[in-house]
Amino acid sequence: MFRWTTWYLAVLIFASAGWSMDLLSTTAISGRAQDVVISGDYAYSADQYGLWLLDVSDPQIPATLSHWGSQGLSESLVKHQNFIYLCDGENGLAVIDASDPASPEYLGQASGISSAIGAEVSGSHLFVATGLDGLAVLDLSAPAAPAKIGEYVIPAWSSSLAVGPNFVALGSTDSLRLLDVSDPTNPLALSTISVIGDVRHLLIDANSNLLIVLRIEQGVSLYDVANAAQPALRSTFETGGWSTSMALWGDTLIVADWFDGLSFHDISVPERPQPIAAFTPNGFPSGLSLQDNLLALAVGDQGIEVWDISNLSNPIYQGAEDPLGSPQDAVWDAEGLIFEAAGDAGLRVWDENLTSAQPLAQVETDGWANALALSPNWIYLSDGFEGVRIFDRSGSPGDSFTISLAEYAGPMSINSSNDLFVAQGDAGFASMRLEGLSAPQVFGATATAGFTYDLAAAGNLLVTCEGSDGLEIFDVSDPANPQLFSTVAPEGGAWCAALAPERAFIGVGSQGLSVYDISEPGSPALLSTTGDLGWVQALILDDSGQTIIASSGMDGIYALAADQIPPVVMDQFDTYGFARRCAFNPSGVICADDMDLSLFGGLVGVTGEAAAPISYEIMRAYPNPFNPATRITFSLATAGKVNLSIYDLMGRQVDQLLSGRLTSGSHEMSWQPHARVSSGTYFIQLNTGQQTQVQRILYLK
């Protein structure tokens, strides 16, 4: 079975032997709340990137207390005493002391657990659904260091479970197993229930001997498990389009559905469940938790919502808390720091290895922090409509100057003379200088022919990227009076840029990356275009001019040999979110990916000659998202055997489109999922024997 081996389902493409872009570390910033537990005055959320802790003592103003960033893909959690057990995907089970919610303490990973998808505490034991390894049983007599004492391995992916009196219900892809755990060291099979569709969530009501089974698209089934060796189906009913979680409130079953919101069902008579009411929250619910009349909802990238459900026919919204910050840009400081432009969180500072779960320092700003530049003594931050903020680098960032601008302050670039240039959209670009001065010297705005999306400065040259209006090259030897050299209109437009001596690298939209000879800036000449890079959002060139990184949004990041014409794709990493901008540091590349900062190695010292061209051009799937079918195109440089398969989020093969020998040249396949394939995220894997490429696709029924 194909298994995802990186911490958040990102996939590496190995471009040549001995050369790869390796994920070294990640600091979670702005996750998507997947699960939530409300307990006392606090709410605890698994937000994909770790544990998020909130104060909900006043439900109308939930407030973030802290965040602990994990190395896995956190989907669920369970609380026991003051400890949180965080199911961290293939990174195992994280043990966190949350006795002080403002400062959670990571105690380590539970021993003997290679992966953790779902968990539940019963008495002095912790039961864990471990994916391919089935069920693990841990002793909680020392809750800070749970010890594995038993297991039950099944030949299927186990992702959900519920614990009853002396038995556990374990859900997998095609069945439901009831296991006798009266001896926790030796779970034994009691019975198996075949099901259609993936089991998403399980509940056991010991008072009524009911096992409640939620399947993503097939709804809820109720089983009588008074005799767990012979479960009896009582009823089944539909719940929505993409059901995610459920909870019991007396005789009322609450079901969360990603598309259809919340529904309430009376199951006091299991043979005749009755709908009571329904409502639509503000976000898309994926997890829920109850405390008295308060309902806490995990609603993905919109955070946590709190509702009063004392009147089921009229739930009352209390309040919500969104994750703070969205990485937009990052730069590396040679003294060993990473500075991050963090959207509504302002400026954050991290250690250069991204090993800390919390920033070393943070300064919130009034605008939208979206771009950064450094000079020897200053940090420049583009803060959207709040202009440019300038911070002193001599210690913890001190807010020293604010430069108001007529238009939105966007991407920025600084040249070897420490002149700063700031993209201003319709107003063109602004130029200023501070290094060596006691106060900023602002030279004003320079008009451009179109909307300035990005710019790049090097030496006395500045290139502005103006979308479909093309690019302009300016002489900025006098930053107070820039002079236009030339205008170029690339096919696909000009959306971002990086400069090397006598060359300009231009992101040309869907056309990819174009390289221009600008040794004569008055008459630039197109040298080459490299396609199949997605829509390039930003470009960064290393100091040697040998490697360029293209940030391509949902397509991740690409590393290209910049000293070759055309630049050759050496590697790619499909980041989990939306790759915005990158920066080089001694260990490799830092990527600001709208929900995390990640550090990649494997780049330093690599030249264009060291990386052989990949044997096939980048695979593309279009449309994406899709319904009912998507076209997959790729091109082989040489003939050979090819496997083309589809996998789901759990790493299970859903379909095989091709397994055989193909001739060189272009090829196209189509995938139309069969009726039993549900909506959601899937992965196309193209394998040529020596090389593998994977692309994420989204199927919407």
Please, could you describe this protein's structure?
The protein is mostly beta strands. Among the domains are: 1-26 and 542-601, no CATH class; 329-541, YVTN repeat-like/Quinoprotein amine dehydrogenase (Methylamine Dehydrogenase, Chain H, 7 Propeller); 620-699, Sandwich (Immunoglobulin-like). It is 0% helix and 51% strand. The chain is built from no helices and 64 strands. The chain has a five-stranded antiparallel sheet, with no helix packed on it. Strands 2-57-56-55 form a four-stranded antiparallel sheet, with no helix packed on it. Strands 3-4-5-6 form a four-stranded antiparallel sheet, with no helix packed on it. It is globular, with a radius of gyration of 27 Å.
**Largest sheet entry:** 5 strands, antiparallel
Q: Level of helix content?
A: under 10%
Would you tell me which CATH topology of the domain at 329-541 applies? Methylamine Dehydrogenase, Chain H
Number of separate helices: 0
Specify the CATH class of the domain at 329-541. Mainly Beta
Number of strands: 64
- What do the pLDDT scores average to? 87
Strand order of the largest sheet: 1-54-53-52-51
Query: CATH-wise, what's the superfamily of the domain at 329-541?
Result: YVTN repeat-like/Quinoprotein amine dehydrogenase
CATH architecture of the domain at 329-541: 7 Propeller
Derived from helix and strand composition plus strand pairing, the structural class reads mainly beta
Q: Tell me, briefly, the overall form.
A: globular
Radius of gyration: 27 Å
Assembly category: single chain
Uncertain regions: pLDDT < 50 for 5+ in a row?
1-19, 604-616
Through-space gap between termini: 26 Å
Strand content: over 45%
